[in-house]
TrEMBL record:
UniProt cross-references to CDD domains, sorted A to Z: BPL (cd16442)
Every BPL/LPL catalytic domain range: 1-178
PANTHER family linked to this entry: BIOTIN PROTEIN LIGASE (PTHR12835), BIOTIN--PROTEIN LIGASE (PTHR12835:SF5)
Protein name: biotin--[biotin carboxyl-carrier protein] ligase
InterPro entries with a match to the protein in the record: aa-tRNA-synth_II/BPL/LPL, Biotin_CoA_COase_ligase, BPL_C, BPL_LPL_catalytic
């Protein structure tokens, strides 16, 4: 545990680059001043309001084709912990957002997995909003456990629950060499992307719209455009309302 750092993911990646074996190492921070999201975005949270942690995961026993499922496994682990402790209605938006509420519009947590190249090792980072207020929220979609009326706000307890579920999912992922049947089924159960009409904007500037049909064996999103089937490995995905307008996510 550190009081303050720029990014727990960046710290573990730096330690790995310096030669340290970070497999199984967990780094928690009271405050991240430069928390990272996907595509280089900042992950903003007030000091002491979030569970922010990163875990080093050796992936040498899993083919690289199965590494994409590690991010999804982490999302399922967070969803499992939230369901167990809070009873919230939890949904997972591909690839890395944890949403809550009957309409699955509130973003409660985010996950970022980064490869510690050239090693076969992945750093999985997550941020769970715990005590953040509406006034502190960085955008209208962000919510916290406190904002949702959850009574359990002890970040140590949440860290224990999340890490226990994450350890179990990582062990199963390693044993299966990717997505085991239970992980794939649980991801489908939590998913609020599959079965919805979506718009995917990829890092290369390509836009795909259609029905989110499946997650393939490598963790990619399969979208049926009506004319073709497109596989998306990374991007921002927005669920579309009838008529094609975008929702909040």
């Amino acid at each position: 545990m550190v009081t303050e750092t720029g990014s727990t993911n960046a710290d573990l990646l730096a330690r790995s680059a310096a030669g340290e074996d970070i497999d199984g190492v967990v780094l928690l921070a009271e405050h991240q001043t430069a928390g990272r999201g996907r595509h280089g975005r900042r992950w903003v949270s007030p000091a002491g309001s979030q569970l922010a942690l990163s875990v080093g995961v050796a992936a040498d026993m899993v083919p690289t084709s199965g590494w994409g499922w590690l991010t999804l496994a982490a999302g399922v682990a967070v969803a499992d912990a939230l369901t167990e402790v809070s009873g919230l209605q939890v949904g997972l938006k591909w690839p890395n957002d944890v949403l809550v509420g009957s309409d699955k519009q509130g973003k409660l947590a985010g996950i970022l997995a980064e490869v510690a190249a050239p090693k076969a090792l992945v750093v999985v980072g997550l941020g769970l909003n715990v005590t953040m207020t509406a006034q502190q929220a960085p955008d209208p979609a962000a919510v916290s456990l406190a904002m949702l009326g959850v009574s359990v706000l002890d970040r140590n307890l949440w860290a224990d629950k999340v890490l226990r579920h994450l350890a179990a999912r990582i062990a199963a992922w390693r044993a299966a060499g990717g997505a085991d049947e239970a992980l794939a089924a649980d991801y489908r159960r939590y998913s609020c992307t599959l079965g919805a009409r979506v718009r995917a904007d990829t890092p290369g500037g390509h836009r795909v719209e259609g029905l989110a049909e499946a997650i393939d064996d490598t963790g990619r999103l399969v979208i049926n455009t009506g004319d073709d089937t497109v596989t998306v490995s990374a991007g921002d995905v927005t669920r579309l309302r009838p008529g094609g307008s975008a929702g909040l996510d």
